[in-house]
Structures
1.
Amino acid sequence: MADRPPTDPPGALVIADRVVEKIATRAALNVDGVVRHQDTVGSLLGAAGDRLGIGADLPRATVDSTGRARRLSLTVALAWPSEVTRLTREIRSRVADELEEYTGDRPVRVDVTVRHLVPRGEVSRRKNGYIDLPALADADTRAESHRLEEETS
């Protein structure tokens, strides 16, 4: 019997929607102006709030991969002031590019919803090993207040 090429490939790589959502969320955070945000309600409800879409941590991604086409919805918080239209365009492009790079599959659609605008003064980018320091004006005011308290006591 002659060797015949197999009709189906021996296996397939399946990337779970949850993985795609994580990649999309990370890609969105790489756009300057997109910030992490959690509603007070979200911190109280935890995972239940995430499932209901109430007060969830942002950015948040959901994938609709019915059929052969993958669609992605992103909900984000942006620093304000910012050029919202330009940022949402950049988010769409960055997310689609990174998904294609990491999964080999480009989504046919990336929808971006801006849920919150966070004033730039309230935005803090926290990194491991770093702490947020008060603004210099705040530190000077506190030092002066502390000095006055010591003088009056």
2.
Amino acid sequence: MPVVERTTFIAARSPAQVLDFCLEGANFPKIFPERITPLRGVDINNLRISAGRQFSFRHWMWGVIPATWTVVIREVSDRHFVDEMLKGPLRAFRHEHRVEACDGGTLYTDRVTYRALGGAPLEWLVVNAYMARIFEARHRNMLRLLS
């Protein structure tokens, strides 16, 4: 399966602060570069990420193509959490968020493994570049919001 991994240094923030920021559901649409619409009664302003929690949202790909996702939080610890797609526009999607103490701040890492519905040809033509763009933008947005 393809993997996208991005690591960003966030100065003057502890791992606990960075992880807490990520666990607040209200921050999800702030760091995501495309519009997100919560579904099925999810109040994004009252969504705290916790193990076992499931929620659905619509992600507007390229700002115009609606893709509905249902995700579950598989794990949460003081150094990471993992979300996994149950239903959505891909065959598989697993996203690990990790924090690690680093001199003067925190290293934040997103590691995503995925499989496109169209397999390797579609991954090569569209999905790999799309994933890289999304996660580069997420990291820019996190830096802006946490600096």
